[in-house]
């Protein structure tokens, strides 16, 4: 269902043999006005000919050589999207399917209502043109809100808010670390709004000399200052009817902050040297990687402007706090770079390389991940990207150093390396989990979130290590 208009009319085909799962999903999605049809399996079915927004099937029922047939149809712009239900967060498998063109791979261990919600959202996105954009195959060029998908509960709550404010005309402040996708989100919001036909103008407030910024933003008239040989339209005027994206807003000098506030209040700009102001109709989206509230309390940023910008505040979580999204990104970026660099020999990524990507802390966020995958595709000499195709910094972990001291008398020094490593890792996992279980008073869901692992995986680990949540209450 359309999150904003509540428009009905989405259709989905479920090829799920498990009757209980299928019935439950059907029931939940019908409540959302999604029409659900059931087929026992996809044998003999051409997915591109299926009249639906989404085809949903269990990943375990698809052999590797069947994948192209199933997805090819689904990946076509007019065909339905293809969504796989995986048994658990199997990163490698998810990457394989997404790189092969799957719209998404969902984890069936989340609760059924959550799963149904995700399917409804995907059906909606697909009806809206699909997550891959009009260029089809793995396009990363045209940002759309539909390609902000996430498995992380926090990110999904965030995206709910985004969908609600996107179509409105309200001023937005987007914050988040560098590379999380602030500019991309702003573009996607613009594309989703009634202003989508209007211009989207990007101004980096940190990149321009203070003296130039004012005339760049608001324009100037001929002779307004030495060197003003002609009349120059400012970015605000250029953005008329559309959206202006003010990046690195925290870098804006104080005297311009005053002027910007006036622009926001009066919907008009005063070009330098002009005798009267010019009316404008522009939506403002500002962004920063700084803590603007802190800048306000330290008097580096004007409080009145902060309040005016911060009508709706969107904080994009860093990638390391939604590590469960890494496989989906990797799959998409792989598909994109394999196609754009014409490296069809690159078929995927090894399990060891995936483990490295999942353990890394991603200080450069999605931007860094894009670069890592592009580099990996270019360096890859085999069929799959291996650890040696990843940058050194990643292979060294990049997280806080873990100190392991080896006492020469310890018995595991007598063991084969593999067995010794297994025991040390197990010992470390035990201490790590005990620490977090204690800190979370035995709440497994919370520990799983902190550790960025699937609750089911965590339960399994706890069982194996003999840890009981009751002991930490
Ligand atoms: N959801 C996403 N899907 C695809 N690419 C993304 C997504 N989020 C970020 N990126 C990519 O990551 C890079 C950094 O995004 P950008 O919006 O410039 O980040 P920021 O403005 O926060 O520094 C860009 O190449 C962008 O296309
Ligand atoms: Mg940026």
Write a structural description.
By secondary structure, the protein is α/β, with parallel strands linked by helices. It folds into four domains: 129 residues, Rossmann fold (3-Layer(aba) Sandwich); 157 residues, P-loop containing nucleotide triphosphate hydrolases (Rossmann fold), CATH 3.40.50; 77 residues, Helicase, Ruva Protein, domain 3 (Orthogonal Bundle), CATH 1.10.8.60; 62 residues, Arc Repressor Mutant, subunit A. It is built from 18 helices and 14 strands. The protein is globular. The two termini are 41 Å apart. The N terminus is likely disordered. Magnesium ion binds next to α6. Magnesium ion (MG) binds next to α6.
List the helices and strands and how they pair.
Blueprint: E1 10-15, H1 19-31, E2 34-38, E3 54-58, H2 67-75, E4 81-86, H3 91-99, E5 104-107, H4 112-127, H5 153-166, E6 172-175, H6 182-192, E7 200-204, H7 210-218, H8 235-238, E8 243-247, H9 254-266, E9 268-269, E10 278-279, E11 283-288, H10 292-297, H11 303-309, E12 312-315, H12 326-340, E13 348-349, H13 351-359, H14 365-379, E14 384-385, H15 392-395, H16 417-439, H17 444-451, H18 455-465
Parallel strand pairs: 1-2, 1-3, 3-4, 4-5, 6-11, 6-12, 7-8, 8-11, 13-14
Antiparallel strand pairs: 9-10
Helix pairs in contact: 1-4, 3-12, 12-14
Short key terms for the protein model shown above:
five-stranded parallel beta sheet; alpha/beta; Rossmann fold; 18 helices; binds adenosine-5'-diphosphate; 14 strands; Helicase, Ruva Protein, domain 3; 473 residues; 12% strand; 4 domains; globular; disordered N terminus; binds magnesium ion
